[in-house]
Amino acid sequence: MGRLVVIEGLDGAGKRTLSEGLTAALEDTGASVGSLAFPRYGRSVHADLVRETLHRGHGDLADSVYGMAMLYALDRAGAADEIRGLLAANDVVLLDRYVASNAAYAAARLREHADGAVVQWVWDLEVTRFGLPRPDAHLLLRVSPEVAAERAVRRAESDTARARDAFESDDSLQQRCAAVYDELAAASWLAPWQVLDGVAGVDLPTLAKSLLA
């Protein structure tokens, strides 16, 4: 059974780039790697509802913190068997966002901390009720909200398919989310966390070896 490693961070932190680089570094060691990114746009009806809602569809659904969190959770619940299959077939499975992302953004939207009610609700829903596979490690790619926002803007300008959504465009939300992520990491929420500097860069070969140790 492989190790389940989750990459978390703000929108624009560079999670996709880290996932691609870390995959190559792991494969260089001879490890087999599977990967999955959430939300699963184009593959999951719940993920597509999320995207449509974040781009001003479905009336006032985006205003409901718990409603949006439920859609994210249902997208992951629908991928549970796929994750288990990837774990059975690979040494490492990298996930771009997972349960902690739901906890961080929901708490930030409600102006709660990591020890608040909505974070516990996310745990009870996704881990306890849906029985999602628990990660072995989290990698928090930390950048300032300002840097993340600048990167997200550049990404949207260069890729029309990745236009900034309502959450990405809310600078205050991103700042609060960064704070909750730090709290989750400090509390080793759901699994141990390793904080990475998303500006200075990551020593990928060293990180890959540590994940396999």
TrEMBL record:
InterPro entries: P-loop_NTPase (IPR027417), Thymidylate_kin-like_dom (IPR039430), Thymidylate_kin_CS (IPR018095), Thymidylate_kinase (IPR018094). The keyword Transcription does not apply. It comes from the Bacteria. GO terms for molecular function: ATP binding; dTMP kinase activity. It catalyses: dTMP + ATP = dTDP + ADP. Residues 7-186 form the Thymidylate kinase-like domain. Gene3D superfamilies: P-loop containing nucleotide triphosphate hydrolases (3.40.50.300). It is an enzyme of class 2 (transferase). PROSITE patterns: THYMIDYLATE_KINASE. SUPFAM superfamilies: P-loop containing nucleoside triphosphate hydrolases. Its EC number is 2.7.4.9. The keyword ATP-binding applies. One of its GO terms (biological process) is dTDP biosynthetic process. GO terms for cellular component: cytosol. Keywords: ATP-binding, Kinase, Nucleotide biosynthesis, Nucleotide-binding, Transferase. Phosphorylation of dTMP to form dTDP in both de novo and salvage pathways of dTTP synthesis. Belongs to the thymidylate kinase family. PANTHER family: THYMIDYLATE KINASE, UMP-CMP KINASE 2, MITOCHONDRIAL. This is Thymidylate kinase. It comes from Amycolatopsis echigonensis.
